[in-house]
Amino acid sequence: MKFTKPLLITKLKATAVHMSLSFAVFAYLVYQIYFNWYPQPYFSVDGGWQGIRLVAAVDLVLGPLITFLIFDLSKKRREIVFDLATILVIQFGALAYGVYVTYSQRPVAIVVIDEFVVSTIMEYYGDKLSSEDELKKYSDEKPPIIYAHVEQSQEAIDEITRIKVEEKILEHAQLGLYRPKSEFRAALQKMQLVAFDRMEHYQAIDRFEEWLRKNQKSREQVLVARFTGRYGAVWLVFDEEGHYLSYF
Length: 248
Prior knowledge:
The protein has helices at 5-37, 42-45, 48-70, 77-104, 154-166, 184-201, 205-215; strands at 109-113, 116-120, 145-148, 222-228, 233-239, 244-247. By secondary structure, it is an alpha+beta fold. It has 2 domains: 5-104, no CATH class; 109-247, no CATH class. The strands form 2 sheets. Strands 2-1-3 form a 3-stranded mixed β-sheet, with no helix packed on it. The chain has a 3-stranded antiparallel β-sheet with strand order 4-5-6. α1 runs antiparallel to α3 and α3 runs antiparallel to α4. The model has no long low-confidence stretch (mean pLDDT 94).
């Protein structure tokens, strides 16, 4: 196809219109990802940024690029309608897949299990969790921050291992290990015995001291736990009662 100046202008106009519509959709999805699906700090270290890049690649690049390549007003009306339908099907299908992947991989719970703090996604629970609402009884946070405890008996460890092997559910997604809110504070306090040693190991003391200064807190007024996400790690900060405050 020869790109004449009028044809190029037509393609650029069509692409600009497509881009503006795509940007409106993208802005809405960015809002959902950043504020609802992956609120900070999970956006930065547990997949939110990766989700936005995936959606952007489909919504802001793939669709407008296809429009630029195939749109041509000199074609017959039927051909133009077919081209537009093709663009819509390809972009909607790719966007639906990107949104599904991003949504399905969002952290539905942050689990404090012994000295580790990790995220869980819906698929980790297998068929044991029918709705995310079941997790709200453990925490008022979004996503809920839940304490899970592993009994140090051979019988308990054998059962955990059996569930991991037979049902493919890891420890932090085993509902039977989840404990009520009332036990969360004690679990955090126990973790403080090694928290500062771990901070020194990960060279996070300076960041912690900076957070304390900015928030006018002392070490004795907060409880901390290191959260390990899929793409990085941060320290979660709680008050003395175990209520989540912030992160650094």
